[in-house]
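Human: My hope is that you can spare some time for a protein that puzzles me. I am handing you a single protein, as its sequence and its fold in C-alpha coordinate form. Could you go through the record with me and say what the backbone is doing? Take your time, and here it is.
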Amino acid sequence: MPAVAQSTAEPDWVSRLADEVIEESARRAPGKPVVVASGLSPSGPIHLGNLREVMFPHLVADEIRRRGIDCVHILSWDDYDRYRKVPAGCAPEWKEHVGKPLTSVPAPSGSPYPNWAEHFKAPMARSLDRLGIIYRGISQTAMYTSGAYRDQILLAMRERRRIDAILGGYRTKGRRLATAPADGEPDPAVTEGSGAATEDDGSTAAGYYPYKPYCPACGTDCTTVTGYDDATTALTFTCACGHTETVLLSEFNRGKLVWKVDWPMRWAYERVAFEPSGVDHQSPGSSFVVGGRIVKDIFGGQQPIGPMYAFVGISGMAKMSSSRGGVPTPADALEIMEVPLLRWLYARRRPQQSFTVAFDQEIQRLYDEWDALERRVVDGSAGDAEAAAHGHAVRTRAGELPRTPRPLPYRTLASVADITTGDEHQILRILSDLDPAHPMRSLHEVRPRLDCAQHWVDTQLPAEQRTRLRDQPDTAALEALTAPERVSLDMLLAELDTHRSLEDLSRLVYAVPKLQLGLPPDVKPSPELKAAQRAFFALVYRLLVGRDTGPRLPTLLLAAGRERVRKLLGGAAQTNVPPA
Protein backbone atom coordinates (compact mmCIF):
# COMPACT_ATOMS: atom_id res chain seq x y z
CA MET A 1 0.00 0.00 0.00
CA PRO A 2 1.28 3.50 -0.79
CA ALA A 3 2.52 5.66 2.03
CA VAL A 4 0.04 8.11 3.48
CA ALA A 5 1.06 11.69 4.14
CA GLN A 6 0.62 12.58 7.79
CA SER A 7 -1.24 15.79 8.68
CA THR A 8 -0.32 17.96 11.66
CA ALA A 9 -4.01 18.73 12.22
CA GLU A 10 -5.99 16.86 14.87
CA PRO A 11 -7.72 14.04 12.95
CA ASP A 12 -11.50 13.96 12.83
CA TRP A 13 -13.46 10.81 13.68
CA VAL A 14 -13.52 9.68 10.05
CA SER A 15 -9.74 9.93 9.72
CA ARG A 16 -9.14 8.15 13.03
CA LEU A 17 -11.36 5.25 11.99
CA ALA A 18 -9.75 5.11 8.55
CA ASP A 19 -6.33 4.78 10.23
CA GLU A 20 -7.62 1.90 12.35
CA VAL A 21 -9.32 0.09 9.47
CA ILE A 22 -6.29 0.43 7.15
CA GLU A 23 -4.00 -1.00 9.82
CA GLU A 24 -6.34 -3.87 10.66
CA SER A 25 -7.00 -4.76 7.03
CA ALA A 26 -3.26 -4.82 6.26
CA ARG A 27 -2.76 -7.19 9.21
CA ARG A 28 -5.56 -9.52 8.11
CA ALA A 29 -5.12 -9.50 4.35
CA PRO A 30 -1.86 -7.87 3.23
CA GLY A 31 -2.02 -6.50 -0.29
CA LYS A 32 -5.78 -7.01 -0.62
CA PRO A 33 -8.38 -4.22 -0.93
CA VAL A 34 -9.88 -2.96 2.31
CA VAL A 35 -13.48 -4.20 2.61
CA VAL A 36 -16.14 -2.24 4.47
CA ALA A 37 -19.76 -3.33 4.57
CA SER A 38 -23.35 -2.20 5.02
CA GLY A 39 -26.63 -4.08 4.94
CA LEU A 40 -30.17 -2.93 4.18
CA SER A 41 -33.43 -4.84 4.18
CA PRO A 42 -35.91 -3.54 1.55
CA SER A 43 -38.88 -4.69 3.62
CA GLY A 44 -40.40 -1.21 3.48
CA PRO A 45 -39.33 2.42 2.98
CA ILE A 46 -35.60 2.70 3.67
CA HIS A 47 -35.52 5.72 5.94
CA LEU A 48 -33.01 8.30 7.14
CA GLY A 49 -32.07 6.14 10.13
CA ASN A 50 -31.10 3.35 7.73
CA LEU A 51 -29.01 5.85 5.76
CA ARG A 52 -26.54 5.99 8.65
CA GLU A 53 -25.92 2.26 8.06
CA VAL A 54 -24.55 3.21 4.64
CA MET A 55 -23.24 6.75 5.16
CA PHE A 56 -21.06 5.80 8.14
CA PRO A 57 -18.95 3.17 6.29
CA HIS A 58 -19.07 5.29 3.12
CA LEU A 59 -17.31 8.18 4.84
CA VAL A 60 -14.60 5.85 6.13
CA ALA A 61 -14.24 4.09 2.76
CA ASP A 62 -14.04 7.41 0.93
CA GLU A 63 -11.32 8.65 3.29
CA ILE A 64 -9.36 5.46 2.64
CA ARG A 65 -9.71 5.97 -1.13
CA ARG A 66 -8.59 9.60 -0.81
CA ARG A 67 -5.30 8.23 0.51
CA GLY A 68 -4.82 6.18 -2.64
CA ILE A 69 -5.67 2.85 -1.01
CA ASP A 70 -8.00 0.40 -2.75
CA CYS A 71 -11.22 0.05 -0.77
CA VAL A 72 -14.45 -1.77 -1.59
CA HIS A 73 -17.71 -0.79 0.08
CA ILE A 74 -20.15 -3.67 -0.24
CA LEU A 75 -23.84 -3.13 0.35
CA SER A 76 -25.80 -6.30 0.99
CA TRP A 77 -29.42 -5.96 -0.01
CA ASP A 78 -31.14 -8.37 2.37
CA ASP A 79 -33.84 -9.05 -0.19
CA TYR A 80 -34.00 -12.77 0.66
CA ASP A 81 -35.41 -11.95 4.11
CA ARG A 82 -38.96 -13.05 4.81
CA TYR A 83 -41.94 -10.74 4.28
CA ARG A 84 -43.04 -10.34 7.89
CA LYS A 85 -46.34 -8.47 7.84
CA VAL A 86 -48.69 -6.47 5.66
CA PRO A 87 -48.08 -2.75 6.25
CA ALA A 88 -50.87 -0.27 6.79
CA GLY A 89 -52.46 0.85 3.55
CA CYS A 90 -51.65 -2.33 1.66
CA ALA A 91 -54.46 -4.54 0.36
CA PRO A 92 -55.42 -7.45 2.67
CA GLU A 93 -54.62 -10.03 -0.04
CA TRP A 94 -50.91 -9.38 0.55
CA LYS A 95 -51.33 -11.40 3.75
CA GLU A 96 -50.99 -14.58 1.69
CA HIS A 97 -47.37 -13.59 0.95
CA VAL A 98 -46.26 -13.40 4.59
CA GLY A 99 -43.26 -15.70 5.02
CA LYS A 100 -42.07 -15.51 1.40
CA PRO A 101 -38.76 -13.92 0.37
CA LEU A 102 -39.12 -10.21 -0.33
CA THR A 103 -38.18 -10.83 -3.95
CA SER A 104 -41.09 -13.28 -4.30
CA VAL A 105 -43.72 -10.82 -3.03
CA PRO A 106 -45.54 -8.67 -5.62
CA ALA A 107 -44.74 -4.97 -5.48
CA PRO A 108 -47.40 -2.63 -4.03
CA SER A 109 -50.25 -1.87 -6.39
CA GLY A 110 -49.31 0.50 -9.18
CA SER A 111 -45.57 -0.01 -8.80
CA PRO A 112 -43.46 -0.36 -11.97
CA TYR A 113 -41.10 -2.76 -10.20
CA PRO A 114 -41.22 -6.57 -10.44
CA ASN A 115 -41.37 -7.30 -6.70
CA TRP A 116 -41.59 -5.87 -3.21
CA ALA A 117 -37.82 -5.70 -2.68
CA GLU A 118 -37.08 -3.88 -5.92
CA HIS A 119 -39.86 -1.38 -5.22
CA PHE A 120 -38.08 -0.18 -2.07
CA LYS A 121 -34.50 -0.72 -3.26
CA ALA A 122 -34.85 1.51 -6.32
CA PRO A 123 -35.48 4.89 -4.63
CA MET A 124 -32.72 4.20 -2.11
CA ALA A 125 -30.28 3.32 -4.88
CA ARG A 126 -31.10 6.58 -6.67
CA SER A 127 -30.57 8.54 -3.46
CA LEU A 128 -27.22 6.85 -2.81
CA ASP A 129 -26.14 7.77 -6.31
CA ARG A 130 -27.12 11.42 -5.77
CA LEU A 131 -25.23 11.43 -2.47
CA GLY A 132 -22.04 10.30 -4.20
CA ILE A 133 -21.91 6.95 -2.40
CA ILE A 134 -19.98 4.37 -4.42
CA TYR A 135 -20.66 0.77 -3.45
CA ARG A 136 -20.90 -2.77 -4.79
CA GLY A 137 -24.43 -4.01 -4.32
CA ILE A 138 -24.98 -7.67 -3.47
CA SER A 139 -28.43 -9.23 -3.71
CA GLN A 140 -28.76 -11.95 -1.08
CA THR A 141 -31.49 -13.53 -3.20
CA ALA A 142 -28.96 -13.93 -6.01
CA MET A 143 -26.28 -15.26 -3.66
CA TYR A 144 -28.48 -17.87 -2.00
CA THR A 145 -30.40 -19.05 -5.05
CA SER A 146 -27.20 -19.36 -7.13
CA GLY A 147 -25.61 -21.65 -4.55
CA ALA A 148 -22.80 -19.19 -3.85
CA TYR A 149 -22.98 -19.96 -0.11
CA ARG A 150 -23.38 -23.73 -0.50
CA ASP A 151 -20.10 -24.65 1.22
CA GLN A 152 -20.81 -22.26 4.09
CA ILE A 153 -24.33 -23.68 4.55
CA LEU A 154 -23.07 -27.27 4.61
CA LEU A 155 -20.36 -26.27 7.09
CA ALA A 156 -22.90 -24.59 9.39
CA MET A 157 -25.11 -27.68 9.29
CA ARG A 158 -22.18 -29.96 10.13
CA GLU A 159 -21.23 -27.66 13.02
CA ARG A 160 -24.78 -27.10 14.18
CA ARG A 161 -24.15 -28.53 17.63
CA ARG A 162 -21.25 -26.15 18.24
CA ILE A 163 -23.34 -23.22 17.02
CA ASP A 164 -26.17 -24.31 19.30
CA ALA A 165 -23.76 -24.39 22.23
CA ILE A 166 -22.58 -20.83 21.50
CA LEU A 167 -26.14 -19.58 21.32
CA GLY A 168 -27.12 -21.60 24.38
CA GLY A 169 -25.29 -19.33 26.78
CA TYR A 170 -27.30 -16.35 25.61
CA ARG A 171 -30.56 -18.28 25.80
CA THR A 172 -29.64 -19.12 29.41
CA LYS A 173 -29.07 -15.42 30.07
CA GLY A 174 -32.55 -14.76 28.71
CA ARG A 175 -34.06 -17.41 30.98
CA ARG A 176 -32.26 -15.95 34.01
CA LEU A 177 -33.68 -12.55 33.16
CA ALA A 178 -37.19 -13.97 32.81
CA THR A 179 -37.02 -15.48 36.32
CA ALA A 180 -35.45 -12.42 38.00
CA PRO A 181 -37.07 -11.30 41.26
CA ALA A 182 -40.09 -9.06 40.76
CA ASP A 183 -38.58 -6.41 43.02
CA GLY A 184 -35.25 -6.45 41.17
CA GLU A 185 -34.53 -3.90 38.46
CA PRO A 186 -32.94 -5.74 35.50
CA ASP A 187 -29.86 -4.33 33.79
CA PRO A 188 -31.10 -2.49 30.66
CA ALA A 189 -28.22 -3.94 28.63
CA VAL A 190 -29.18 -7.47 29.61
CA THR A 191 -32.83 -6.72 28.90
CA GLU A 192 -31.91 -5.57 25.42
CA GLY A 193 -29.68 -8.58 24.88
CA SER A 194 -32.28 -11.06 26.01
CA GLY A 195 -33.72 -10.92 22.52
CA ALA A 196 -31.48 -13.89 21.79
CA ALA A 197 -33.80 -15.99 23.88
CA THR A 198 -36.83 -15.27 21.73
CA GLU A 199 -35.43 -14.69 18.23
CA ASP A 200 -35.83 -17.62 15.82
CA ASP A 201 -32.24 -18.84 15.81
CA GLY A 202 -32.86 -22.31 14.40
CA SER A 203 -34.04 -24.21 17.46
CA THR A 204 -36.76 -26.84 16.83
CA ALA A 205 -38.31 -29.69 18.77
CA ALA A 206 -36.29 -32.08 16.61
CA GLY A 207 -32.98 -30.35 17.39
CA TYR A 208 -31.01 -27.31 16.33
CA TYR A 209 -30.71 -26.49 12.60
CA PRO A 210 -29.22 -23.13 11.48
CA TYR A 211 -30.86 -23.38 8.05
CA LYS A 212 -34.41 -22.39 7.13
CA PRO A 213 -35.80 -23.72 3.81
CA TYR A 214 -38.48 -21.93 1.80
CA CYS A 215 -41.27 -24.38 1.01
CA PRO A 216 -41.39 -25.36 -2.70
CA ALA A 217 -45.18 -25.76 -2.43
CA CYS A 218 -46.30 -22.46 -0.86
CA GLY A 219 -43.11 -20.42 -1.09
CA THR A 220 -42.96 -19.46 2.60
CA ASP A 221 -40.49 -20.20 5.37
CA CYS A 222 -43.23 -21.55 7.63
CA THR A 223 -41.12 -24.71 7.67
CA THR A 224 -39.61 -26.88 10.36
CA VAL A 225 -36.54 -29.01 9.76
CA THR A 226 -37.13 -32.47 11.21
CA GLY A 227 -33.94 -34.24 10.21
CA TYR A 228 -30.57 -33.91 8.50
CA ASP A 229 -27.98 -36.48 7.37
CA ASP A 230 -24.44 -35.10 7.40
CA ALA A 231 -23.13 -37.78 5.04
CA THR A 232 -25.73 -37.41 2.28
CA THR A 233 -26.90 -33.82 3.07
CA ALA A 234 -30.49 -35.12 3.01
CA LEU A 235 -32.66 -32.49 4.68
CA THR A 236 -36.23 -33.31 5.70
CA PHE A 237 -38.70 -30.60 6.56
CA THR A 238 -42.41 -30.01 6.99
CA CYS A 239 -44.39 -26.86 6.26
CA ALA A 240 -47.45 -25.31 7.89
CA CYS A 241 -49.19 -25.66 4.53
CA GLY A 242 -49.01 -29.47 4.93
CA HIS A 243 -46.14 -30.07 2.53
CA THR A 244 -43.37 -32.48 3.59
CA GLU A 245 -40.21 -33.07 1.59
CA THR A 246 -36.68 -34.39 1.71
CA VAL A 247 -34.08 -32.57 -0.40
CA LEU A 248 -30.32 -32.78 -0.84
CA LEU A 249 -28.91 -29.62 0.69
CA SER A 250 -25.88 -30.01 -1.58
CA GLU A 251 -28.25 -29.19 -4.47
CA PHE A 252 -31.16 -27.30 -2.89
CA ASN A 253 -31.01 -23.50 -3.22
CA ARG A 254 -34.32 -22.32 -1.73
CA GLY A 255 -33.49 -21.38 1.84
CA LYS A 256 -31.06 -19.40 3.97
CA LEU A 257 -29.10 -19.47 7.18
CA VAL A 258 -30.77 -17.96 10.22
CA TRP A 259 -29.68 -14.38 10.84
CA LYS A 260 -27.28 -14.97 13.73
CA VAL A 261 -25.35 -17.42 11.57
CA ASP A 262 -25.88 -15.68 8.24
CA TRP A 263 -24.23 -12.41 9.29
CA PRO A 264 -20.94 -13.87 10.61
CA MET A 265 -20.84 -16.23 7.62
CA ARG A 266 -20.82 -13.19 5.33
CA TRP A 267 -18.08 -11.49 7.35
CA ALA A 268 -15.84 -14.44 6.63
CA TYR A 269 -16.99 -14.88 3.01
CA GLU A 270 -16.40 -11.23 2.07
CA ARG A 271 -13.37 -10.67 4.36
CA VAL A 272 -15.08 -7.66 5.93
CA ALA A 273 -12.71 -5.46 7.95
CA PHE A 274 -15.23 -2.81 8.99
CA GLU A 275 -18.99 -2.90 9.48
CA PRO A 276 -20.70 -0.66 12.04
CA SER A 277 -24.17 -1.38 13.37
CA GLY A 278 -26.90 0.22 15.46
CA VAL A 279 -27.23 0.03 19.21
CA ASP A 280 -29.79 -2.78 18.91
CA HIS A 281 -27.09 -5.02 17.43
CA GLN A 282 -24.44 -4.23 20.05
CA SER A 283 -26.04 -5.28 23.34
CA PRO A 284 -25.25 -8.56 25.16
CA GLY A 285 -26.69 -11.52 23.28
CA SER A 286 -27.26 -9.48 20.13
CA SER A 287 -26.34 -10.52 16.61
CA PHE A 288 -23.01 -8.67 16.57
CA VAL A 289 -21.86 -10.06 19.91
CA VAL A 290 -22.88 -13.65 19.15
CA GLY A 291 -21.54 -13.32 15.61
CA GLY A 292 -18.07 -12.58 16.94
CA ARG A 293 -17.93 -16.08 18.42
CA ILE A 294 -19.50 -17.82 15.44
CA VAL A 295 -17.33 -16.21 12.75
CA LYS A 296 -14.16 -17.29 14.57
CA ASP A 297 -15.14 -20.71 15.91
CA ILE A 298 -17.22 -21.91 12.95
CA PHE A 299 -16.17 -20.07 9.79
CA GLY A 300 -12.52 -19.41 10.62
CA GLY A 301 -12.86 -15.69 10.02
CA GLN A 302 -12.60 -12.56 12.13
CA GLN A 303 -15.19 -10.18 13.42
CA PRO A 304 -14.91 -6.80 11.68
CA ILE A 305 -14.23 -3.58 13.48
CA GLY A 306 -17.81 -2.72 14.31
CA PRO A 307 -18.44 0.47 16.22
CA MET A 308 -21.94 1.32 17.28
CA TYR A 309 -23.90 4.17 15.77
CA ALA A 310 -26.78 5.98 17.45
CA PHE A 311 -30.25 6.46 16.05
CA VAL A 312 -31.34 9.28 13.77
CA GLY A 313 -34.57 11.12 14.48
CA ILE A 314 -36.84 13.57 12.72
CA SER A 315 -37.95 16.86 14.30
CA GLY A 316 -40.89 15.96 16.54
CA MET A 317 -40.67 12.19 15.91
CA ALA A 318 -39.36 9.34 18.02
CA LYS A 319 -36.91 6.65 16.87
CA MET A 320 -37.74 5.68 13.32
CA SER A 321 -38.89 2.23 12.32
CA SER A 322 -39.57 1.13 8.77
CA SER A 323 -42.47 -0.95 10.07
CA ARG A 324 -44.31 2.34 10.67
CA GLY A 325 -45.72 4.29 7.81
CA GLY A 326 -44.75 7.81 6.88
CA VAL A 327 -41.09 7.77 7.95
CA PRO A 328 -39.02 10.14 5.80
CA THR A 329 -36.56 8.58 3.37
CA PRO A 330 -33.33 9.99 1.91
CA ALA A 331 -35.30 10.79 -1.24
CA ASP A 332 -37.68 12.90 0.89
CA ALA A 333 -34.77 14.73 2.51
CA LEU A 334 -33.11 15.43 -0.85
CA GLU A 335 -36.28 17.19 -1.97
CA ILE A 336 -35.67 19.90 0.64
CA MET A 337 -31.90 19.66 1.26
CA GLU A 338 -28.92 20.01 -0.99
CA VAL A 339 -26.65 16.96 -1.18
CA PRO A 340 -23.75 18.51 0.79
CA LEU A 341 -26.06 19.57 3.62
CA LEU A 342 -27.51 16.08 4.06
CA ARG A 343 -24.03 14.51 3.96
CA TRP A 344 -22.84 17.07 6.53
CA LEU A 345 -25.51 16.01 9.02
CA TYR A 346 -23.99 12.52 9.07
CA ALA A 347 -20.34 13.65 8.86
CA ARG A 348 -20.30 16.28 11.60
CA ARG A 349 -21.54 14.06 14.44
CA ARG A 350 -19.51 11.22 15.92
CA PRO A 351 -21.28 7.90 15.28
CA GLN A 352 -22.18 7.46 18.95
CA GLN A 353 -24.09 10.76 18.90
CA SER A 354 -27.72 10.77 17.88
CA PHE A 355 -28.98 13.67 15.82
CA THR A 356 -32.16 14.97 14.27
CA VAL A 357 -32.97 15.72 10.65
CA ALA A 358 -35.20 18.78 10.45
CA PHE A 359 -38.25 18.83 8.22
CA ASP A 360 -39.85 21.76 10.07
CA GLN A 361 -38.83 25.42 10.44
CA GLU A 362 -35.58 24.24 12.05
CA ILE A 363 -34.24 23.53 8.56
CA GLN A 364 -33.78 27.29 8.10
CA ARG A 365 -31.49 27.48 11.14
CA LEU A 366 -29.66 24.41 9.89
CA TYR A 367 -28.94 26.11 6.57
CA ASP A 368 -27.77 29.22 8.44
CA GLU A 369 -25.28 27.02 10.33
CA TRP A 370 -24.10 25.46 7.09
CA ASP A 371 -23.64 28.81 5.35
CA ALA A 372 -21.72 30.16 8.35
CA LEU A 373 -19.44 27.11 8.21
CA GLU A 374 -18.87 27.68 4.50
CA ARG A 375 -17.75 31.25 5.24
CA ARG A 376 -15.38 30.07 7.97
CA VAL A 377 -13.88 27.47 5.66
CA VAL A 378 -13.32 30.11 2.97
CA ASP A 379 -11.66 32.61 5.32
CA GLY A 380 -9.64 29.93 7.10
CA SER A 381 -11.21 30.38 10.54
CA ALA A 382 -12.91 26.94 10.70
CA GLY A 383 -11.57 24.46 13.22
CA ASP A 384 -9.89 21.25 12.05
CA ALA A 385 -12.91 19.05 12.80
CA GLU A 386 -15.28 21.56 11.21
CA ALA A 387 -13.18 21.80 8.06
CA ALA A 388 -12.89 18.02 7.84
CA ALA A 389 -16.67 17.53 8.15
CA HIS A 390 -17.18 20.19 5.47
CA GLY A 391 -14.72 18.43 3.19
CA HIS A 392 -16.50 15.10 3.63
CA ALA A 393 -19.79 16.84 2.81
CA VAL A 394 -18.88 18.69 -0.37
CA ARG A 395 -16.65 16.19 -2.16
CA THR A 396 -15.71 12.53 -2.43
CA ARG A 397 -12.64 10.84 -3.87
CA ALA A 398 -14.46 10.98 -7.22
CA GLY A 399 -14.79 14.77 -7.14
CA GLU A 400 -16.94 17.71 -6.10
CA LEU A 401 -20.65 17.18 -5.47
CA PRO A 402 -23.34 19.47 -6.98
CA ARG A 403 -23.71 22.79 -5.16
CA THR A 404 -25.67 26.01 -5.63
CA PRO A 405 -23.51 28.60 -7.45
CA ARG A 406 -25.02 31.56 -5.57
CA PRO A 407 -26.23 30.19 -2.21
CA LEU A 408 -28.63 32.84 -0.93
CA PRO A 409 -30.02 32.21 2.58
CA TYR A 410 -32.50 29.33 2.58
CA ARG A 411 -34.95 31.28 4.74
CA THR A 412 -34.95 34.10 2.17
CA LEU A 413 -35.58 31.71 -0.71
CA ALA A 414 -38.34 29.99 1.24
CA SER A 415 -40.00 33.33 2.02
CA VAL A 416 -39.83 34.42 -1.62
CA ALA A 417 -41.14 31.07 -2.84
CA ASP A 418 -43.98 31.33 -0.34
CA ILE A 419 -44.94 34.91 -1.12
CA THR A 420 -44.86 34.44 -4.90
CA THR A 421 -46.56 30.99 -4.82
CA GLY A 422 -43.71 29.77 -7.01
CA ASP A 423 -44.08 32.32 -9.84
CA GLU A 424 -40.60 32.21 -11.37
CA HIS A 425 -40.87 35.62 -13.03
CA GLN A 426 -41.69 37.24 -9.69
CA ILE A 427 -39.02 35.19 -7.91
CA LEU A 428 -36.36 36.43 -10.33
CA ARG A 429 -37.55 40.03 -9.93
CA ILE A 430 -37.35 39.85 -6.16
CA LEU A 431 -34.02 38.03 -6.00
CA SER A 432 -32.51 40.51 -8.46
CA ASP A 433 -33.48 43.33 -6.09
CA LEU A 434 -31.80 41.70 -3.10
CA ASP A 435 -28.47 43.14 -4.21
CA PRO A 436 -29.00 45.70 -6.99
CA ALA A 437 -25.23 46.05 -7.42
CA HIS A 438 -25.08 42.39 -8.47
CA PRO A 439 -28.42 41.60 -10.11
CA MET A 440 -29.37 38.01 -10.77
CA ARG A 441 -29.57 37.05 -14.42
CA SER A 442 -31.11 33.59 -14.08
CA LEU A 443 -32.64 31.38 -11.42
CA HIS A 444 -30.05 28.74 -12.33
CA GLU A 445 -27.71 30.75 -10.11
CA VAL A 446 -29.72 29.76 -7.03
CA ARG A 447 -30.53 26.18 -7.97
CA PRO A 448 -30.82 23.54 -6.59
CA ARG A 449 -31.28 25.45 -3.30
CA LEU A 450 -34.26 27.39 -4.64
CA ASP A 451 -35.99 24.17 -5.72
CA CYS A 452 -35.35 22.68 -2.26
CA ALA A 453 -36.84 25.75 -0.58
CA GLN A 454 -39.84 25.73 -2.93
CA HIS A 455 -40.50 22.04 -2.21
CA TRP A 456 -40.22 22.68 1.53
CA VAL A 457 -42.79 25.47 1.31
CA ASP A 458 -45.13 23.33 -0.80
CA THR A 459 -44.95 20.19 1.35
CA GLN A 460 -43.79 21.10 4.87
CA LEU A 461 -44.95 24.62 5.68
CA PRO A 462 -48.33 24.46 7.48
CA ALA A 463 -51.19 26.18 5.66
CA GLU A 464 -51.73 28.59 8.54
CA GLN A 465 -48.12 29.75 8.19
CA ARG A 466 -48.29 30.40 4.46
CA THR A 467 -48.02 34.06 3.47
CA ARG A 468 -50.72 35.69 1.35
CA LEU A 469 -50.51 39.43 0.68
CA ARG A 470 -53.80 41.30 0.86
CA ASP A 471 -55.34 42.21 -2.48
CA GLN A 472 -56.96 45.38 -1.10
CA PRO A 473 -56.13 47.67 1.82
CA ASP A 474 -57.75 46.93 5.17
CA THR A 475 -59.65 50.22 5.30
CA ALA A 476 -61.08 49.60 8.74
CA ALA A 477 -57.63 49.02 10.20
CA LEU A 478 -56.19 52.05 8.40
CA GLU A 479 -58.98 54.29 9.74
CA ALA A 480 -58.34 53.01 13.28
CA LEU A 481 -54.62 53.87 13.24
CA THR A 482 -53.34 56.03 16.08
CA ALA A 483 -51.40 59.16 15.21
CA PRO A 484 -48.01 57.61 16.15
CA GLU A 485 -48.82 54.51 14.07
CA ARG A 486 -49.69 56.66 11.05
CA VAL A 487 -46.45 58.59 11.44
CA SER A 488 -44.40 55.38 11.59
CA LEU A 489 -46.00 54.09 8.38
CA ASP A 490 -45.43 57.42 6.65
CA MET A 491 -41.80 57.34 7.70
CA LEU A 492 -41.42 53.88 6.17
CA LEU A 493 -43.18 54.80 2.93
CA ALA A 494 -41.17 57.97 2.47
CA GLU A 495 -37.93 56.03 2.22
CA LEU A 496 -38.99 53.02 0.11
CA ASP A 497 -37.67 54.50 -3.14
CA THR A 498 -34.20 55.06 -1.73
CA HIS A 499 -33.96 51.71 0.07
CA ARG A 500 -33.99 49.14 -2.69
CA SER A 501 -31.76 46.29 -1.50
CA LEU A 502 -32.57 43.77 1.21
CA GLU A 503 -29.77 45.16 3.36
CA ASP A 504 -31.10 48.73 2.96
CA LEU A 505 -34.64 47.66 3.85
CA SER A 506 -33.36 45.83 6.92
CA ARG A 507 -31.72 49.02 8.18
CA LEU A 508 -34.83 51.02 7.39
CA VAL A 509 -37.39 48.90 9.27
CA TYR A 510 -35.21 48.87 12.39
CA ALA A 511 -34.50 52.59 12.10
CA VAL A 512 -38.13 53.82 12.05
CA PRO A 513 -38.90 52.96 15.74
CA LYS A 514 -35.53 54.44 16.79
CA LEU A 515 -36.27 57.71 15.06
CA GLN A 516 -39.76 57.87 16.54
CA LEU A 517 -38.20 57.55 19.99
CA GLY A 518 -35.64 60.23 19.15
CA LEU A 519 -32.75 57.77 19.20
CA PRO A 520 -29.74 57.72 16.87
CA PRO A 521 -29.64 54.90 14.25
CA ASP A 522 -26.65 53.17 15.89
CA VAL A 523 -28.05 53.01 19.43
CA LYS A 524 -27.89 49.68 21.22
CA PRO A 525 -31.29 47.96 21.69
CA SER A 526 -33.05 48.55 25.01
CA PRO A 527 -36.19 46.78 26.28
CA GLU A 528 -38.21 49.88 25.36
CA LEU A 529 -36.77 49.98 21.83
CA LYS A 530 -37.27 46.25 21.29
CA ALA A 531 -40.92 46.58 22.32
CA ALA A 532 -41.38 49.51 19.91
CA GLN A 533 -39.79 47.53 17.06
CA ARG A 534 -42.02 44.50 17.73
CA ALA A 535 -45.11 46.69 17.75
CA PHE A 536 -44.10 48.40 14.49
CA PHE A 537 -43.38 45.09 12.76
CA ALA A 538 -46.73 43.64 13.92
CA LEU A 539 -48.54 46.70 12.59
CA VAL A 540 -46.97 46.34 9.13
CA TYR A 541 -47.62 42.59 9.07
CA ARG A 542 -51.31 43.08 9.92
CA LEU A 543 -51.78 45.56 7.11
CA LEU A 544 -49.87 43.48 4.56
CA VAL A 545 -50.81 39.87 5.41
CA GLY A 546 -53.53 40.05 8.05
CA ARG A 547 -51.61 38.62 11.01
CA ASP A 548 -49.00 39.77 13.54
CA THR A 549 -46.09 37.74 12.15
CA GLY A 550 -44.75 36.54 8.84
CA PRO A 551 -41.53 36.10 6.89
CA ARG A 552 -38.71 38.54 7.61
CA LEU A 553 -40.19 41.99 7.11
CA PRO A 554 -37.49 43.29 4.71
CA THR A 555 -38.01 40.22 2.50
CA LEU A 556 -41.77 40.71 2.60
CA LEU A 557 -41.47 44.38 1.60
CA LEU A 558 -39.12 43.51 -1.23
CA ALA A 559 -41.39 40.72 -2.45
CA ALA A 560 -44.54 42.83 -2.32
CA GLY A 561 -42.99 45.64 -4.36
CA ARG A 562 -43.05 49.36 -3.57
CA GLU A 563 -46.35 50.11 -5.29
CA ARG A 564 -48.27 47.36 -3.53
CA VAL A 565 -46.77 48.27 -0.18
CA ARG A 566 -47.87 51.89 -0.67
CA LYS A 567 -51.37 50.74 -1.57
CA LEU A 568 -51.75 48.43 1.43
CA LEU A 569 -50.19 50.82 3.96
CA GLY A 570 -52.38 53.76 3.02
CA GLY A 571 -50.85 55.44 0.00
CA ALA A 572 -47.89 57.64 -0.74
CA ALA A 573 -46.43 59.72 2.04
CA GLN A 574 -44.53 62.99 2.04
CA THR A 575 -42.83 62.72 5.40
CA ASN A 576 -39.08 62.53 5.00
CA VAL A 577 -36.98 60.31 7.19
CA PRO A 578 -33.22 60.71 7.59
CA PRO A 579 -31.50 57.83 5.76
CA ALA A 580 -31.16 54.76 7.96
About this structure: The chain has a mean pLDDT of 88. The radius of gyration is 31 Å. The CA atoms of residues 542 and 548 lie 5 Å apart. DSSP finds 22 helices and 16 strands in the chain.
